[in-house]
Design brief:
Blueprint: H1 2-18, H2 20-57, E1 63-68, H3 74-79, E2 86-98, E3 114-118, E4 130-134, E5 142-146, E6 158-159, E7 167-174, E8 182-184, H4 186-191, E9 196-203, H5 209-220, E10 225-230, H6 231-242, H7 245-273, H8 276-284, H9 289-329, H10 340-367, H11 370-378, H12 384-394, H13 399-410, H14 412-443, E11 453-457, H15 468-476, E12 481-492, E13 501-508, E14 518-521, E15 529-532, H16 534-540, E16 547-552, E17 555-561, E18 563-565, E19 572-576, E20 591-596, H17 602-612, E21 618-622, H18 628-662, H19 664-672, H20 677-718, H21 724-727, H22 732-759, H23 762-765
Parallel strand pairs: 3-8, 5-7, 13-19, 15-17
Antiparallel strand pairs: 1-9, 1-10, 2-3, 2-9, 4-7, 5-8, 6-7, 11-20, 11-21, 12-13, 12-20, 14-18, 15-19, 16-17
Helix pairs in contact: 1-9, 2-6, 2-7, 2-9, 2-10, 2-18, 7-10, 7-14, 7-18, 7-20, 8-11, 9-10, 9-18, 12-13, 13-20, 14-18, 14-20, 14-22, 18-22, 20-22
Keywords: Cell membrane, Membrane, Transmembrane, Transmembrane helix
Domain ABC3 transporter permease C-terminal: 251-369, 639-758
Pfam families: FtsX, MacB_PCD
Length: 769
């Protein structure tokens, strides 16, 4: 029993050593397929578990409750930690809201100010903070802010608030729990004159917002809660943003796996077919059909197993790194990676695919008679390839080009598989470039993204009573101003919405600020017209031209819907400020949005306005779109495109390598009659270049169609729709690059084996003659 097994193993090992390039190709393709599968599955699984994993690891709070220090004592608030249904609690932490300064702030502060809590350390039984930069606070005058350093907001920034000590930013931290915007030491918060207590709870029952509210009411035991933050809000926001990735990941994953299936089948079966002469020799030496089959399965098993192991490791690292980037981008403290069962399933699937691809031709090899196998391995096949080559040689094309263009026809099945791989590679690149443009347009489509400078006013300043028109006139007089509009958020009630809605009102020269995110209709042009979000339109089954009844400050109004903009929220409405009645009481100071003239530096403009508008209580700061999501999406597109193009190039390499071995006799004859090596290289590269051109011609339209389908599917899944400019992003300049990708991949993949074939000595090739 031992000798047949030893003979099979020896023959398999010799085959692996003899066909090093093919062995390496098999291993690399399997590694790419495995890494792609693990990577894609890891990201898809993360969409369901990332937030939960991060929340569990950070011991996030199901609810963070704010108690009024004027109506409760610290002992009373602390006693709620032992309330009904509470499984863990942290606090009470003293809190204070720092008012925004009169001038510009070095840290991001909302108009309502910055809520700060006194906390001794970032750990604890609930809501463990994760530092993203810097260090934790150690003494007076220091503060750690929520989030991460971004734009002008860096370590060393100053937090100033009228009548309170100045604080220096020494760190940034993220939390799976809402509630506060920054943390200082307990001693420091006492010096800031705190007015509240913060308690963070984990409950036995917190499966939905209603359960969180009921559990909090039971824990508070009648104490007045000034406000609270539920973890469900953060979870839904995360899931909404991550769902934007799911269609992209799914489509790219399918493309990458399809290419891998093609290439694995092509490479593995080609390795068997190219060894027909070796099969004949083995059978002549007495190998049984089962042993021959085992030899070729063993030849494939070695690089397949090695490639699968490498792919598992690379895919695990890539998925882990991308999940970590997603966590950072979504401001989660930590996240889980790919599960071991998923990795095992992915590796087993790729191994099964490779085994099937090897077994079918290996069984054929085992049944092949010795004489037929030897002749198949030494005699070039005749047929359509010969006829096409003769016709091409008679044309005015150079001889190497004519012969090269005829090579794919001799092996139509192999050429079709190679062409399919190239098409998918071009499709992936085309779609990736289009998605990059789409994401960029989405990130820069809203009003804020078109704004150069934001100008606010301190509500405590007498200028806060100035009208929006007067404030706009003050800013418009500033040199370098091109367009100014005043934006105010007004709460309103809309039939069909259980919660309140937000009316974004604009006055002045607002047309240049309106983005290109319209899904249907047009923007409002005057009073009485409203543009809701597309999500609201779909929820209510409304159409452009329908009337919409709203209630603002007790006044009922009827507005006309003239368009809908892309957004997943159902409670957003944009309209002219004159459409609504004047606000009761003291109106909220408007936010002025400014577009500066060409050649004007926004930073210098803001600095000058801070000087000239100080007496009026104005403060200005530059605005810039948040492009973090664009970098995240573009990174995914790049990774998948590189994987798919690399797999396609390996398919080309394998096809040229097999073609060179099958036509070794023809190449030897050509070299014997005087064809120089460079013309041999040109002939073989031309054979694949033709497929590359065809792949570009077919793949580019497929990529455009795939892009349109994915973008529209994403809009439907989110319920937000997609604006036409986000879908139709392709121009001739953008299509030129992917059109050339097929040719470039084909030439790069064909070059190494073509050079190797051209370097083989003529006598060596023709020694069997």
């Amino acid at each position: 029993m031992g000798r047949p097994v030893s003979a099979v193993w020896a023959a398999s090992r010799a085959g692996v050593r003899r066909r090093r390039m093919q062995t390496g190709s098999i291993g690399l393709v399997v590694a790419l397929a495995t890494a792609t599968l693990v990577f894609g599955l890891g990201l898809l699984s993360a969409s369901h578990s990332m937030f939960d994993d991060a929340f569990a690891k950070a011991r996030g709070a199901h609810a963070a409750a704010d108690f009024d220090a004027a109506r409760t004592t610290e002992a009373q608030v602390a006693a709620t930690a032992h309330g009904s249904g509470v499984t863990a609690a942290a606090g009470p932490f003293r809190t204070v809201t720092l008012a925004r300064p009169d001038g510009p702030s070095e840290v991001p502060m909302q108009s309502e100010g910055l809520t700060v809590a006194g906390r001794a350390d970032p750990g604890g039984p609930v809501d463990r903070l994760s530092l993203t930069a810097g260090r934790w606070v150690r003494g007076p005058g220091e503060i750690v802010l929520r989030g991460k350093p971004m734009g002008p907001f860096r370590l060393g920034g100053k937090v100033t608030s009228p009548g309170r000590p100045e604080l220096t930013v020494v760190g940034f931290a993220v939390s799976a729990t809402g509630g506060v915007d920054g943390w200082v030491t307990p001693a420091q918060v006492a010096a800031l004159r705190p007015d509240g207590f913060l308690m963070e709870y984990r409950f036995a029952r917190a499966g939905d917002p209603a359960e969180v509210r009921r559990s909090l009411n039971a824990a508070a035991a009648g104490l007045p809660v000034r406000g609270y933050d539920s973890y469900m809000t953060a979870k839904r926001e995360f899931e909404g943003r991550f769902n934007q990735l799911v269609p992209f990941i799914t489509v790219f994953g399918i493309l990458a796996l399809t290419v891998s299936v093609f290439i694995i089948g092509n490479v593995v079966s080609g390795a068997v077919i190219s060894g027909f002469r070796h099969i004949g020799v083995m059978k002549a030496l007495g190998f049984t059909p089962g042993q021959v089959t085992s030899v070729y399965v063993g030849m494939v098993a070695v690089p397949t197993a090695a490639g699968c192991a490498v792919g598992l490791a690379v895919g695990h690292l890539l998925a882990g790194r991308m999940v970590a980037n997603l966590s950072e981008n979504f401001e989660l403290p930590s996240a889980g990676g790919v599960s071991l069962p998923l990795e095992a399933a992915a590796g087993g699937g790729v191994l099964a695919l490779a085994a099937l691809a090897a077994l079918v031709p290996a069984l054929r090899a085992g049944r092949l008679p010795a004489v037929q196998a030897i002749s198949a391995g030494t005699v070039s096949r005749r047929g359509r390839g010969r006829r096409v080559q003769r016709w091409l040689v008679r044309t005015r094309l150079p001889l190497p080009v004519g012969l090269g263009l005829g090579l794919p026809v001799a092996r139509p099945a192999r050429a079709a598989v190679t062409l399919a791989g190239l098409c998918l590679g071009v499709t992936a690149v085309t779609m990736g470039l289009g998605l990059h443009q789409t994401v960029t347009k989405i990130m820069t489509a809203d009003t804020e993204s078109r704004t150069s400078v934001r100008v606010g006013v301190d509500p405590r300043n007498p200028a806060g009573s100035m009208s929006a028109d007067r404030l706009a006139a003050t800013v418009r007089a500033q040199p370098g101003t091109a367009h100014v509009t005043a934006s105010v958020q007004r709460p309103m009630r809309v039939p069909g919405l259980a919660t309140g809605a937000s009316a974004e009102t604009y006055s002045g020269d607002y047309r240049p600020f309106l983005g290109d995110n319209l899904v249907r209709g047009r923007w409002f042009t005057g009073p009485g017209e409203v543009v809701p979000s597309e999500a609201f339109m779909r929820l209510q089954g409304l159409h452009v031209g329908d009337p919409l009844s709203v209630q603002v400050d007790g006044t009922r109004l009827t507005l006309k819907i003239v368009g809908a903009f892309s957004h997943p929220d159902t409670d957003r409405f944009m309209l002219d400020a004159a459409s609504l009645p004047a606000a009761k009481g003291r109106p909220e100071p408007p936010l002025l949005l400014v577009i500066v003239k060409d050649g004007t530096d926004p930073a210098a403009y803001a600095a000058q306005l801070n000087k000239t508008g100080a007496s009026a209580g104005l403060f200005a700061e530059t605005a810039a779109p948040d492009l973090a999501d664009r970098a995240l999406f573009s990174g995914l597109f790049l990774v998948f495109s590189l994987i798919i193009c690399t797999a396609a190039a390996l398919g080309v390499l394998n096809s040229v390598l097999l073609g060179a071995r099958e036509r070794a006799r023809d190449l030897g004859v050509l070299k014997a009659v005087g064809m120089p090596p460079r013309r041999v290289v040109l002939m073989m590269v031309t054979s694949m270049a033709a497929l590359g051109v065809a792949g570009g011609a077919i793949g580019v339209p497929l990529g455009v169609l795939a892009h349109h389908g994915v973008v529209e599917l994403t809009g439907d899944l989110l319920g937000s729709g997609m604006a036409a400019p986000w879908i139709h992003v392709y121009g001739w300049a953008l299509l030129l690059l992917p059109a050339c990708v097929g040719l470039a991949v084909a030439v790069l993949g064909a070059w190494p084996p073509a050079v190797r074939a051209a370097a083989v000595r003529t006598a060596t090739v023709l020694r069997s003659e």
